[in-house]
Design brief:
2 copies of one chain form a homodimer. Chain A has 242 residues and is of the alpha/beta class. In chain A, 32% of the residues lie in helices and 22% in strands. Chains A and B meet through helix 5 and helix 9 of A and helix 5 and helix 9 of B.
């Protein structure tokens, strides 16, 4: 059984305003909810249609119809959890850090979080205008990677003015990334889908790189930001062998 | 002025059934329409709100309100063109070819077409169940790359049984792609978002490769197919230096 106020809370968490206000977000499906709990995310409440299949303490049983009513998924998947957003921690640059300068598409953000997880990038620092990683669509698109990649929102100019590691950004006129000796500790900046890296952040980039283009002269003007990020992170990991 | 039958035709081209029946597709915006014409795509009809700004022969002037009525875009952009799908040509394996085994998401398909354009891959061979590249959403997502990358739909088992170049596919148990000597002529197979490469196509893969994973043991189970494709194509181009 689910109460009216619980329904209202879950529905409100589809909006950033209420996620910010409450510090809560929604995750769905037994795998994702289980991974968040395992990663020590703090649950606020867990609703399930199959209480016997999970061992999460304090979960409430609800009907399929109730779950369908509150779920953000086209096909609800047994469990819906409300979680507390993790507290901000001190940012450290002991390895690779990815910085997002106003990434707007939630799908791109979800893909980049998965990519960071794959390449062992534990820290993703986003500008305040970047899409909200606690948007239910992004949470689901990360396929569990949100449990392992710390995503924080900061003023990027302030953050980048205090780092001691090289700051890489991709530009059409940068140096061929394949020919670079890449360090293990670095920051990789990815820019907005339409505008690329903003002028303010560009001035903080210390190493301008480029992904070489092949083929015809009139080829694509840019790569999708997640695919560009994939190539850059792959190059960093290949170059440093870890 | 646009006629009722023209409105009906354009609207019908939002559906694959009618694109298949008529052999036509829709592209919007002056840049994309211009690039298609330049790439010798054959226009069926072109509608524009600003006839003075383009030099396309046979274009019809329509009002903003008319364009808004037929456009597939949230923000209509001056020009809407109906084009004939290009005729199938003989497939050749003189360079890199990308093969898509049932890619379902139109966004992923659009991103992969852009990626092929960037890396000079002129030929993309898709299974019949792969999303339709002539879907208006895909056409727009390619940002003009559809004008330069030939996309064809074929029975993949038949196609792959007749090729003489190595066929690469990414699998968790494949050989580290970074350590491979990669050839200039090859086929790279990318699999379905949820299922990966199907068993039938896997049996046609002659070189099993893997993108190494870094970091925690319990990391992401897979990469998004477009990001995996980005890393693989980047490696092929880096390795062969062209």
């Amino acid at each position: 059984m689910i109460s009216k106020s619980q329904i209202k809370l879950i529905t409100s968490l589809g909006q950033k305003k209420y996620r910010d206000k409450t510090g809560l977000f929604v995750a769905e499906g037994p795998k994702l909810v289980g991974e968040l709990i395992q990663a020590a995310f703090s649950p606020h409440s867990i609703f399930t249609t199959e209480p016997s299949t999970t061992t999460i303490s304090g979960q409430q049983e609800i009907s399929e119809a109730e779950l369908k009513k509150v779920s953000f998924l086209k096909t609800p998947n047994k469990v819906l959890g409300i979680f507390h957003k993790p507290a901000k921690e001190r940012l450290e640059n002991t390895d690779l850090t990815v910085v997002l300068d106003d990434i707007q598409d939630p799908g791109n953000l979800g893909t980049i979080i998965r990519l960071c997880d794959w390449f062992g990038v534990a820290q993703l620092v986003c500008s305040p205008k970047t899409a909200d990683c606690y948007n239910p669509k992004v949470i689901q698109a990360t396929m569990g990677s949100i449990a392992r990649v710390r995503v924080e929102y900061h003023d990027l100019e302030m953050y980048l003015s205090n780092v001691s590691v090289p700051v890489y950004g991709a530009f059409m006129d940068g140096n061929d990334v394949y020919g670079q000796s890449l360090p293990q500790k670095a920051i990789v900046v990815l820019g907005n889908e339409g505008q690329g890296i903003s002028a303010e952040i560009e001035s903080r980039v210390t190493r301008r790189i480029a992904i070489p283009q092949y083929g015809k002269a009139q080829a694509a003007e840019s790569l999708n930001v997640a695919t560009a990020g994939a190539i850059l992170l792959s190059e960093f990991r290949r170059a440093t062998g870890k």
